[in-house]
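Schema walk-through. Below, the input block comes first and the output block second. Nothing else is stored per chain. Lengths vary across the set, and this one has 397 residues.
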Amino acid sequence: MATGISKKYLRHFVDNINSRWVLLQGGRRSGKSFSVYKWLHILLSGQPKVCGIIAASFPALQLAMNDFRRATGLEISGSTIYGFASHLSNGSKFIFKSYDEPTKAQGSTYDVVYLEEVLNFDEQVVSVLSLSVSGQIYASYNPTRASFVDKYINKDKSNLLCTTFKDNPYLTPEQIEEFEHLKRKALSPTASVLDTYNYTVYYKGEFGSMSGKVFKLVYNCSDREYDDIQAPELYSIDFGFTQSEQSDATALVGCKLFEGKAYFKEYIYSTQLANNKALAMRMAELGIDVYSPIVADYGGMGASRIRALVTAENCSWTEPEISSGFTVQNAVKQKVIDGLNKMLQYEIHVTESSWNLRNEFDNYELNAEGKPKSGCPDHALDACRYAVNSYALNFEY
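--- output ---
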């Protein structure tokens, strides 16, 4: 394995040494970035060049720099203020940048560029950036969705390499087993649309569709069974609102995670509780107090809603039950898809009294873009997602 690059990747790079765009499509852990970094290290070891390693966001850039160090053994110096770079003895250098809007990409000058996870970029950023590159542009991506990248693929697809984890010779048996587990889940009779999508995209390295019903199998449990589960309970709120004639339900659910199962109980589901004081009084009636662990979404108007529930200051709440407010934390932020995937790691149980919540689980669908289908109720289900994402921060389990 010359230079530490597998033959499949090395052949692709050599065959496309004169191609403007060199594209790598593959599933998770297929070795795309590792191989590109190895190859670029070779290219810059000859005639001095400036290579840009570009990510769509700074957190993504930090991950890219870590991968670069592991692949090349080179050190990276710099800071967020002055920028990051890695220098070779022949005068070549790697410059690490993140561009989340087109104006930031203007004025850049590179001989070669590598776009890490190019599907995460705004199309206009890529267009502006490409004008600043005199030589080749390398780009890798997981095939999570169709995008503008298609226009950079040659008609004969000679500049596109499709790979999977099977093309990465450095995976451990444990890592390979993770992929086989992904396959088993996707091929089981109870597979969700996300299980199938993850298998298609990350195992097979192909474009998949997320449209369809998400939760194929949800179990019932009695309220008594829920109460008897020996696990701490986390409360979670999805705030509703009233605007003109439109009303969204406020939902409060309880969540317990125990032995690979997620248990949920609906406590509040009402379009009449957009008023913070009314919501607080209802929570007090349920026995929730300042010591009860509660999470809620900080997005939208959630920030002010949380502050109002946490303290009675300037809220003119004189009722003794709520005069101390509640302990409400901002829920762990995560993409909807990532949150749903985390929920699907558990066997899901819903109490029989949780009629609205059960209805949402039974009817929750995603569209082709992986977003909740229009008109699909998700208020209580969103609260469940916040709870599962935030559970480990509140309890050791």
